[in-house]
Amino acid sequence: MTTNKVTFGFFDEDAKKEIRRASLKAVALPGYIVPFASREMPIARGWGTGGLQVTLSLITEEDTLKVIDQGCDGSVNAVNIREFIVSVTGVKQTMATPEATVIQTRHRVPEYPLTSNQILVYQVPIPEVLTIVEPDTAKQKEMHASVDYSKLWVLLYEDTSQFGDSRISSRYPVRVNDHFVMDPSPIPKYDIPKLNNNPSLQLFGAGREKRIYAIPPYTKVEPLKFTDREFIIEDFGDKCCERCGATDVYLDEVHQEDGVHFFCSDTYHCDTNKNEVEDAA
Amino acid sequence: MSYVAIKGGTEAIRASKQFFNDSLKAAEKIDDKALIKGMVFSCDRVMGEGALYTEKLSAEAIRRSGGDLFEAAFYVRAHRSTCQRIGQIEPVDTSKMCILRRISAAFKDIKGGQILGPSCDYVIRLFTSFKEEAWKQRQSDPNSKDMYLESALGPFRQKDKVIILENSEKEPFDVTRTFPLPPYPRSALMQVMSRGETGALLAFAYTTMRGYGDVHPTIGDLRLGTAPFSFEHPFTRKKAKVGEMRFTACETVGSFSRDKKDGKLRLSVGYGFCFGFNETKAISMSILDLAMHHQGHSVGGMDIASNPEIIIHHVDAVESMGFSNHFKLPHYVTFQADLHVFEAAKDNDDSAS
Q: Cα separation of B134 and A61, whole Å?
């Protein structure tokens, strides 16, 4: 095999520039989805190539990287993506949320509060929030331009009248900066409140659909909801993490030989919480 | 050399066939083992789309067609027409198969565990080697037992949380004996999809997950492995094991909806199955099964994949490839007729202006 000679961050400089320009535009228009070229990556489309491209375009030698999938640093896809990024950048990697400067994530926002020194990069499968009610790209664009989200409201109304609440479980539509309605990527409703007024820069990359969008730091983000209806997040009742005892976290339901168990979805949070509990004891 | 000689085409055709065979001569050097073991996914596609479980003939078909998998499946199908159907094997219960790989995306851990098995999912697709540390192959444990795992969705079924579609079919339909009229039995749709072309199934399934439809699938249980199949002996009437098959099966969870049976809310589940190892096909098929049998949110009738009429007639490789290539055949009679109509319309147009 030939020795591996790639530039820092895998891409050529033109590709990075293009992605950065799209990202800057996205930051300037919170919640607006910006098209970009989206190069083919050596991992498959739909496996995080959008997040990966955003991360590779902005990461520097000084950064410390954390990659999670379902809240877990050890999840196969997270490990694979982290190893790939490290192999083409040589950056420091960490599992500790506070130590990371760039966090690439799939399906979760870390439990540990983020700071203004951190960038959270989301892997996005379906960037267009209107897809569920209007699949045609040209019509979607018109609807955003006239801030016309009536079809989403009708869907919300239909679900509420039939089932008591929206059937949308993850990817719950959010309104950003009192203007555009946006798809927050498939995070659970539990994570939606964390998007609001978050000190970190949140960037969203969709590789297959070739879109980038952003929530700048300290931006107002609220779920699309009727004023007389409460936004209800997932409730685990009296269940707690069997490993660290945490109750105020998002839990994974795990089926094992001896039955169903619940554990923290955020593994770093679980580790630190477990240590704190043990230290206190 | 004209395209359609007025007469004397026989010689030209013979020469063309000879030319084709000569140009693929190098393929003769590829032996069965290299194809069956090394090009396993090509062979499996051909077996699946050819609708005949035969590794050896799939390998032969790939050689003869120069690696064109449409053509290879075509060879197998043509051969299939010469085989007498002597009966049906006992249904294979995929929850009782011997597992090589079994994953579920719905749960972090499941009874029996996530068994990655051999997979290219996490391969970095670069020609240069990418710090892939050589992994010392673990000695296979001679005492290791075969693995049998119930579906990861088993607990949901036991708790009556899954819609079980009504089945009024006494026996599964066989589209190779007679072709159904609508409404199409689910077993006929399943058979057509299981014989269907991987790319066609994928493309239709992709429309529903991308926006033209609203199937939001979660892979509940994807499994690769082997199972024996048995047959009732025609004379002794005893069950006899006649062989073993490798296959892929997939159960995909959709959204929830009202069960027609009792109006209760339950989860919808789609199923996919194919010969050999072909995860893309089994997943796509399970998504199409979901789309066709479980109405979800509406995108204003713009979805096509939920229409059995579309799926049953448009996913078969032998049919679609055959028809699209038939346009290479001479059409001079019909084109002549077309031209007459065109000229007449043009004359009419010109005289009116």
A: 27
Q: CB within 8 A of B46, min separation 6: which ones?
A: B58, B61, B62, B69, B72, B73, B76
For residue B257, the SS3 value is strand
**Smallest Cα–Cα separation from B296: which of B178, B202, B190, B216?**
B216
Domain definitions of chain A by residue range: 13-223, 235-281
Residues B41 and B112 occupy one common structural domain: no
Regarding whether B196 and B71 lie in a shared domain, the answer is no
* Total-model pTM: 0.84
The whole domain housing B53 covers 10-80
Q: Say if the ipTM goes beyond 0.85.
A: no
Shared domain check, B53 and B23: yes
Which three-class secondary structure state does DSSP give residue A148? coil
Cα B314 from Cα B48, distance rounded (Å): 16
A255 closest CB neighbour out of B110, B122, B265: B110
- Residues A178-206 pLDDT 10s: 999 999 999 999 999 999 999 999 999 99
Of A186, A212, A201, nearest to A52 (Cα)?
A212
Catalytic residues of A: 31, 241, 244, 264, 270
Domain co-membership, B99 together with B76 = no
The pairing of strands A102-106 and A64-69 is parallel
Q: Is residue B289 within 8 Å of residue B193, measured between CB atoms? A: yes
Asked if B116 and A135 come within 8 Å (Cβ–Cβ), the reply is no
Q: In what order do the strands lie in the sheet with A181-182?
A: A181-182, A174-176, A221-223
Residue B227 and residue B196 in one domain: yes
- Among chain B, residues having any CB pair with chain A shorter than 8 Å are 107-111, 116, 121-122, 124-126, 128-131, 152, 155, 210-212, 214, 255-256, 265, 297, 299-300, 302
Q: What pLDDT is stored for residue A3 in this prediction?
A: 44
B244 contacts B328 by C-beta, under 8 angstroms = no
CB B256 within 8 A of CB B267: yes
How many domains does one find in chain B? 2
Our CA-based measurement puts residue A39 at a distance from the nearest CA of chain B, in whole angstroms, of: 14
Assess whether B228 and B297 both reside in one domain.
yes
- pLDDT tens digits, B271-289: 999 999 999 999 999 999 9
B210, A135: Cβ pair inside 8 Å? yes
**Mean pLDDT to the nearest integer, B118-141:** 72
* Strand pairing class (A201-206; A119-123): parallel
Tell whether B98 and B76 lie within a shared domain: no
Amino acid at B141: D
Question: What per-residue string of b and e applies to A35-63 under the rule 16 or more CB within 10 Å gives b?
Answer: ebebbebbbbeebbbbbbbbbbbbbeeeb
- Could you tell me if residue B249 is inside a domain? yes
At the topology level, CATH places domain A13-223 in Rossmann fold (3.40.50)
Are B263 and B287 part of one and the same domain? Answer: yes
Q: What is d(CA A23, CA A32) in angstroms, rounded to the nearest whole number?
A: 11
Helix (H, G, I), strand (E, B) or coil at B1: coil
